[in-house]
Amino acid sequence: MRRRTPVPVRHTGRGDRVLQAAFDSFALVTVSAASPSGAEGPDRRGRSAARGRLRTRQGTVLDRAIISDPPIIRTGSHASRAIRRAAERAARRRDGAALVRRRDTPGRGRVASSAVAAQVAREVATRKVVLELRGVSKRFGSTVAVDGVEMEVREGSLFGVVGPNGAGKTTTLSMITGLLRPDAGTITVGDTDVWRDPEAAKRAIGVLPDRLRLFDRLTGAQLLYYAGVLRGLTPATVRERAAELAAAFGLEDALDRLVVDYSAGMAKKVALAAAMIHAPRVLVLDEPFESLDPVSAANVTEILQKYVASGGAVLVSSHSMDLIQRICDHVAIIVAGKVIVAGSVEKVRGDRTLEERFVELAGGRQSAEGMEWLQPSSV
Q: Residue-wise over 296-328: b if at least 16 C-beta within 10 A, else e?
């Protein structure tokens, strides 16, 4: 029986580093974008893998990381499950991505143990700061919306921001993304000051704002094309990435429809795809899971975790304490425009749930006494 020699993997960027660990463990054929066919592997499954694509939980196509230099590794449907499992193990071991879900895990909502979560937080704390706020303040007339906010988000981190209504979360995110000028303080993305060099800073940021306002008289495909070309991508690159993003978010059948005809959840997903199409260094997401059904929310969570595992950083605001506790490694609680506490999720919540800790810091629950009239009426 003739022995075949596996084709070595060629590296081009950091986006493929997680998958590389899988190929270290499996003698499978890989084919670069420059030579998509004709390679031989150790067995028929390897040859079949050379013609396939890596698939996500929903069976959608996402065969290259969308947050950095696109990797040239191609994998197939026969080998993808084994590759994904090995990649997830490598992510947990090397990058601390302990919350990456496994396809074979019942419930798909597994929460990392306290020990693992603490290890993740320690590893993230050693990485480079990619988003920094120092003494950021904003006043509207006599109302102080944001009061001296200090915050650091590091690469490979999924950082949550929580607070009661009117606490200043959206105002803070608007200043980070260049939509609103702060009255005081500095905001830097990498080494770039957001307000001294806004064009350079915005190139490194992907934004999903609150109260979406999309060009809803465009089709989904046209919206993604516009977003990509506006960011300086070539038309060919935009079309390729748009197709992959649409497949990952389950929007393939909706690309030719006007955005005005989308449901709220579909509009949220296409807006998130538009925020990611230029491979930003930092994603700033204001209530990204609002209007999403549980299946779509799980899919979006998986995509964000892959993004973070490949070196991206996510700053996300949400009112869902359970979600933030489940997917984030760090969190900041903002009350009345001030950061009351910030740090790893485990440190902030202590021996309680994040919701219990939040209620305590935000002033406790309001009493419902004195509403005896609120009874079923016989009328």
A: bbbbbbbbbbbbbbbbbbbbbbbebbebbbbbb
